[in-house]
Amino acid sequence: MITLSAVTKSYGTGADALRDVSLEIGKGEFVCLAGPSGAGKSTLLRLLLREDVASSGQVLVEGTDLATLGREARQAYRRTVGFVFQDFRLLPERTVFENVATVARVMGQSRAHQWRRASSLLQQVGLQHRMESFPLQLSGGEQQRVAIARALMNEPSLLLADEPTGNLDRALSIEVMDIFRTINASGTTVVMATHDQDLIAYVNRRVVQLQQGQVTDDRRPE
Ligand code: ADP
Predict the structure, then answer these.
(1) Gap from CA of 133 to ligand 1 centroid (Å)
(2) CA of 93: how far to CAs of 67, 68, 123, 187, in Å?
(3) 29-33, 99-103, 194-198: which has the minimum mean pLDDT?
């Protein structure tokens, strides 16, 4: 599904953020990108989201070279990818339901469809009773679950997450991982950056280790 061939990303300052990274990720995999702060994890995710392009090398997703996408194709591509950030990025003045449904409104889906899908996703993450609340009335774990529901609204085949549990305590982190595992079990490819070794052990799936922009290890559980 994803092929990186000799990808280098330089921001023009200091060392390369990614250096000669080659990586294949198959459909339906759950991959943890591990490594310390500054290793290049976010940069790799930003390339996969097509927020940025590689300085050299190729990033292919489902056979498409992301560097070749024009403005509209890029927007269309991004709608097929779900993204979850460490800091949730919910709209504070919108209700939980609106935060989740907004994505679909942008795509011109009917109100009835939005309502059904948003309710079903909020139920899936255990927040159906919080639909009319505002984000700041929720705990961090609840806010992240809203963000996950939002990321799934367009039925993405790929879910990217950048330190999604970075602001959560252990119990909530495990809840979020259980949701990711369920999403993955239903066929969505998941690529998650984290420096949390305990969480990586809990997930117990493929781990790609980055260090100073290079892949230093790539292993799957026995
Ligand atoms: P990680 O997510 O593993 O913490 P990053 O991908 O954020 O790592 O960063 C990798 C390297 O690229 C770091 O040295 C960081 O300082 C640098 N970097 C990241 N984003 C930018 C940017 N927008 N401009 C300049 N340097 C950046």
Answers:
(1) 35
(2) 35, 36, 22, 33
(3) 99-103
Ligand 1 centroid–CA 43 distance in Å is 6
Residue 109 pLDDT > 90: no
Residues 6+ apart with CB under 8 A from 139: 172
Rounded distance between C-alpha atoms, residue 95 and residue 90, angstroms: 9
What does the alpha-carbon distance between residue 5 and residue 60 come to, in Å, rounded to a whole number? 8
Nearest to 56 by CA among 120, 89, 8: 8
CA–CA separation, 24 and 86 (whole Å)? 25
Largest CA distance in the chain: 51
Ligand 1, atom 12: closest residue by C-alpha: 17
Q: For residues 99 and 150, is the Cβ–Cβ distance under 8 A?
A: yes
165-188 exposure pattern, b = at least 16 Cβ within 10 A, e = fewer: bebbeeebbbbbbebbbebbeeeb
CA 19 to chain centre: 22
Ligand 1, residue 14: give the atom nearest the CA.
Answer: 14
User: Which pLDDT score, from 0 to 100, does residue 112 have?
Assistant: 84
Position 104 scores a pLDDT of 64
What does the pLDDT look like over 188-199, one tens digit per residue? 999 999 999 999
Cβ–Cβ under 8 Å, residues 86 and 167: yes
Given this model, what pLDDT does residue 105 score?
Answer: 55
Angle at 22 between CA 21 and CA 23, to 5 degrees: 120
- Calpha distance 119→12 (Å, rounded): 45
